[in-house]
Amino acid sequence: MKKVFLLALSFYLISSVSFGQTSASTKEKIANYIRSQTEVECRKLLDNNGFKSLQFMKGYPSCLDGYVFYSDRRTLGEESEVLPEPAKCMSIEGGSLKVLGMGDGYSCEIVFTLTAKNNLDSDCFVFIGTNGWLYSFNLFKFERAVPMTLDFYGLSFLDFTLKRRINFLLTGNSKFENNESYNFSGFANSLKCANVYESVGSYYEGLAWVKKNGKFGIIDEAGGEVVPPLYDNAIFFQEGMAQVKYMDKWGFIDKSGKEVIPVKYESAGAFSEGLANVRLNGKWGFIDKSGNIVIPIMYDNASRFSEGKASVRTGDKETYIDKTGKAIMSTQYDVTLNYYEGFAGVAKGDLWGFIDKTGAEVIPLKYEKVDSFSEGLAGVKSGGKWGFIDTGGNVVLPIKYDYVGIFLDGIARVSLEKRVINIDKTGKEK
C-alpha cells in the first residue's frame, strides 16, 4: 500500500504540482512527505541529477528574509518569454518562497536548504519546498550579463529525479527594493548567518576566499574559516597555494592557512607547473613553492608557465623561456599570451592572431581580440562581436555574440542580446 501511495505522490510531484493544481488535502500530503525526508535523501536527489551537494541544513537561513528578485525573461518548457521590463518574480518572507504572478502553487514553505555545484562547476544555492519543487539559484558571475539564473524543478524522492519546468534569468537588484546591500551569492558558501560575508569567491581545490569588513580570508566547503579575514586581498588556490596581500605586498599561503612564502613581493602570479611569477624592485622572475628563486628576477614583465613555456619581456623584446630560464624562442610581437593546446595568442598593434609551438604564425593577425584555445576552439572578436574558430582558423560558430567564455565539457557560456545562454559546439542552446 505504501508503494502505491508513493507512486501516486511521485506523479503529483512532477505533474499536478507543476501546474499548481493540487487540492488542499494533496498539498498537505506532499508537504508532510517532503518534511519526512532526510539529509541523505536530499543529497542523493541532487547528486543523481548533475549536482555535487556540499552543505545542508533543515529549514533556511533567517537572514535571507526580505530578499526580492526580479526577472526580465522566463522559459516555460520550450517557449521563452522576454518581459517588457523587469518584474518581481520571487521574494523570501518568513521562511517561505513567494513566487509572484504565477499562482499559489509555486509558493511554499522552505523545508531544506543546500549548497551545491552544477555540472559546469558553478556555485548553486538550493531550496526544497513543501510543494514538491526544488529551486536552484545558479550563482555564476558573467561579465556584462545577469548575475544568476533560477531553475524550478518538479522533484521525486521515489526515484531521485528532477524534471525541469521553469527557468528565470534574474536581473541585478541594485535598482529595486533598496537591495543595494544584498549579497545573495555569499550564502552559497556559508549557510550560517553569523558568517555572512560581503563577497565570496568560487571554490578552487576545496577552498574559497571571502571578504568581510574590507578584509580577505579563506573558508572551506563547510563554511569554516581556514584563515580569518585579515588580508587586504586574496586570490583563489592553485596547486595548493594562494596569493595574499598585506600592506601593498604579496606572499603565499598553503591550504592550512600557513604563510609559507613571506609577504614581500610587489606583485605575484598564481603557481603554474610548480613555479610562480613574482615582481620585486620593479623586475619579474620565478620562485618555487619553497620561495626559492629559480629564474632570476630580471625581466620587465613575465607571464605564468603553460605547456612548459612562459613569456618574458626585456625592453620591447618578447621571448619565451623554459623552466630553467633558457630562451627558447624570440618573437616579433607586441603582446604574447600563454600557450594552450599548442597555440598562443599574439598581437602586433591592434590586431591579434595565433602562433604554434615553433613560433610560426598559423592564424593571421586580423582579430580585435582573441581568447585561448579550449577543446579545439578559441573565441575571437571582430566587428565588436565574438565567435569561435578552430585550430585551422576556420570560423565554426558565427561571430555574433556579445561575449563568449571557453568550452568546458563541450559547453560554453555566451552572451547574446542581453541573454546568457549555454551552447554546445554546434551553437545549439543547452
Report the sheet-strand fraction. Answer: over 45%
Strand order of the largest sheet: 2-3-4-5-6-7-8-9
Helical segment tally? 3
Structural class, judged by helices and strands?
A: mainly beta
Mean pLDDT: 82
What is the terminal-to-terminal distance? 40 Å
Globally, the shape reads globular
How large, in whole angstroms, is the Cα Rg?
25 Å
Number of strands: 36
Largest sheet: 8 strands, antiparallel, barrel
Low-confidence stretches: 1-20, 141-147
Helical content band: under 10%
Set down the secondary structure blueprint:
Layout: H1 2-16, H2 24-35, H3 39-47, E1 52-58, E2 68-76, E3 79-93, E4 96-99, E5 108-117, E6 123-129, E7 133-138, E8 148-156, E9 161-170, E10 199-200, E11 207-212, E12 215-220, E13 225-231, E14 233-234, E15 241-246, E16 249-254, E17 259-265, E18 267-268, E19 276-280, E20 283-287, E21 293-299, E22 301-302, E23 310-314, E24 317-321, E25 327-331, E26 335-340, E27 343-348, E28 351-355, E29 361-367, E30 369-374, E31 377-382, E32 385-390, E33 395-401, E34 403-404, E35 412-416, E36 419-423
Antiparallel strand pairs: 1-5, 2-3, 2-9, 3-4, 4-5, 5-6, 6-7, 7-8, 8-9, 10-11, 11-12, 12-13, 14-15, 15-16, 16-17, 18-19, 19-20, 20-21, 22-23, 23-24, 24-25, 26-27, 27-28, 28-29, 30-31, 31-32, 32-33, 34-35, 35-36
Brief summary of the model shown:
By secondary structure, this protein is mainly beta. Helices cover 8% and strands 50% of the residues. Among the domains are: 2-185, no CATH class; 197-265, Thrombin, subunit H (Beta Barrel).
